[in-house]
Amino acid sequence: MAEEIDPELGQPHNDLGIDEAIPGLHGALYVPARLLQKANEAPLAGVLTHDLEHDDPGHVAKAPGAGLNTDLVIVDQITSGDKTGPTTSAFGPIGVVDSAADSGRPLKFRVNSAFHRELRRRVDEYFRSTGRRQRDCWQMYLKTAVILAGLVVSYLLLVFAAHAWWQGVPLAILLGFAAAGIGFNVQHDGGHHAYSDSPWVNKLMAMMLDLMGGSSYFWRWKHGVFHHTYVNVTGHDADINLGLLARVTPYQTRLAFHRWQHLYVWPFYGLLAVKWQFVDDLRRLMTGRIGSHRVRRPTGWDLVVLVAGKATFFAWAFGVPVLFHSVQAVLGYYAIAAVVLGATLSVVFQVAHCVEQAAFPLPFAGTGRIDQAWAIHQAETTVDFARPSRLAAWLLGGLNFQIEHHLFPRISHVNYPAISKVVEQTCRDFGVPYTEHRSLWEGLTSHFRWLRRMGMQTR
């Protein structure tokens, strides 16, 4: 059975499984044993550590500069009221492993923090010397306004002005791309607490996903916790589990029809949005599971947001349009927009992780230990693409700078092109892989070849 972890702490409540202290800025995470026992009984899920009150299971002493650059990597200090129990410290996401994946042992990372410490020092120095803001950047607010305007205008024209298919189809395509732009730029930064220093602003931006028919609550678990903690680790990273549809890692089961997956899988990528709008979130709500991981079902405000978001989505996607168009037209235009949205989201993810150059490590049998330190693991399992393209960076929310994003998920993506040179040079200095495809097309062809390779019969 999978252990339950907190989506902010990124570690099991009942077993830290500490193996590595990943360097933070100026703080450390200290979790006394008795606090862990109390944490099992406390509704900590979805609560930022620095938002906890003193009458919670533990209280927080905010360290200077802590929590600036990381997402799952916690750099706040948490102390229990009872300081007599043994303490253990860690800066990195440690985790949850179900028995099928690794005999129930927590996933650990190798002890080696020199690279991460120096990388953080250089990036912090860059922001200090340039005076750039890590969050609350004016460029981000301007971009949000532009993309939201595109979404609203394309929707209004599609519903109220389009009277023929040759008008509706281009507008539906534009609506799909605009929705993807919201996801890449606004929701993604908000979900990673990278949009603003204000928690409520980040929450508001993350909830854009709820308005598009998804769930910011379950996204936080699936992507923010399981993917960003266990990138490309089979059985742990839920984002690389395509089920029976395709085999994208060397350790997933190969089926006979996977021989043709490099040809047939592309249209299925377009069903991603439809799947989480109609199936995935409901299934997760009912089962309390994401893949092999057990997660807390949303309660209170989280449940209200999920239900209200679904209702709002169905109202604007189907309820309002059907007042002005036939059911067939509404379903047709929805299908076009949803396929564009799903295909765009899927392709950008695949070319960053499921390509020939990305690593797919497994923990050592019996120990649950990954052979690399957490930060090095992030670089080895991630590939940048189209770095010279300002247009790609603007449209894709900086997700063509995936290495930078995985190392600094709490820095706004508008800063990724600037810090990429610092990240690349630090990787070179420490002998850490820094891999990139020069263009999106180069990444797509690499993903095509990887799919074909994973579909071949193992000899």
List keywords for this structure.
single chain; 459 residues; mainly alpha; 2 domains; two-stranded antiparallel ribbon; two-stranded parallel sheet; 17 helices; 8 strands; globular
Topology summary:
Elements: H1 33-39, E1 58-61, E2 77-80, H2 99-102, E3 108-109, H3 114-130, H4 138-160, H5 165-191, H6 199-206, H7 208-211, H8 216-229, H9 261-269, H10 272-287, E4 289-290, E5 293-294, H11 300-319, H12 327-353, E6 369-370, H13 374-380, E7 384-385, H14 390-395, H15 402-407, H16 416-430, E8 436-437, H17 440-455
Parallel strand pairs: 3-6, 7-8
Antiparallel strand pairs: 1-2, 4-5
Explained architecture:
- This protein is mainly α and 459 residues long.
- It has 2 domains: 1-109, no CATH class; 114-459, no CATH class.
- It has helices at 33-39, 99-102, 114-130, 138-160, 165-191, 199-206, 208-211, 216-229, 261-269, 272-287, 300-319, 327-353, 374-380, 390-395, 402-407, 416-430, 440-455, and strands spanning 58-61, 77-80, 108-109, 289-290, 293-294, 369-370, 384-385, 436-437.
- It has a two-stranded antiparallel sheet. The protein has a two-stranded parallel sheet with strand order 3-6. Strands 4-5 form a two-stranded antiparallel sheet.
- Helix 4 (138-160) packs antiparallel against helix 5 (165-191) and helix 9 crosses helix 12 (327-353).
